[in-house]
Amino acid sequence: MKKFSTYLLVMFMIVFWILRIIITLASQLGKSFMGIVPMNETFEIVILFATLACVVLIAKRKLTGSLLYIVLHAIYFGSDVTNKLGMLARNEQLTLAQSTEFMFSMIGIILPLAVLLDLLLDKNRKLNPKDKKTDWFYQNEQFDRKLDDRADKNNYRTM
To answer: With b meaning 16 or more CB within 10 Å and e meaning fewer, what string describes 51-69?
Structure first.
């Protein structure tokens, strides 16, 4: 993770993941968190565990983590977003719980898109990876040793 935007997106991913854990736990205890209940508790739990792997892969700047993250969230939250948008298109009123679910579902779609765009727009992800711990030495030619004719060119052997 070299960019500030990646740090922010990973932090938002973790916060959203913690909120989804709270929502799932509240549902398991028979309560609702701000009126939100999981659409499918089993798939929600699978997504929560898969998100852990996605966070690690995204922190390592791997495109597969971002693609897995967007596919899982699009499958889970996409149907809810289309249903709520259909209700709004028919001029139906959403209740407070439905509006909150719609807001969380939109975050569940927008966040993976932002992560994917962040990884795709990063030109230095594969072309020029930099490591500040060693580049100061290896990429500075002023510290290279110049050999002259007096340089010791013997190959010493130890017995």
So the answer is: beebbebbeebeeebbbbb
Could you tell me where the DSSP H helices lie in the chain? 4-28, 41-59, 63-89, 96-121, 132-138
Extract the tokens encoding 14. Answer: 């973790």
- Contact status, residue 115 vs residue 79, Cβ threshold 8 Å: no
pLDDT computed for residue 71 by the predictor: 92
Residue with tokens 């579902």: 105
* Calpha distance 55→62 (Å, rounded): 10
Other beta carbons within 10 Å of 8: 12
CA 78 to chain CA centroid, Å, is: 18
Q: What are phi and psi of 137, to 5 degrees?
A: -90, -50
**Beta-carbon-side half-sphere exposure of residue 58 (alpha carbons within 13 Å):** 32
pLDDT tens-digit series, residues 23-52: 888 888 888 777 777 888 888 888 989 999
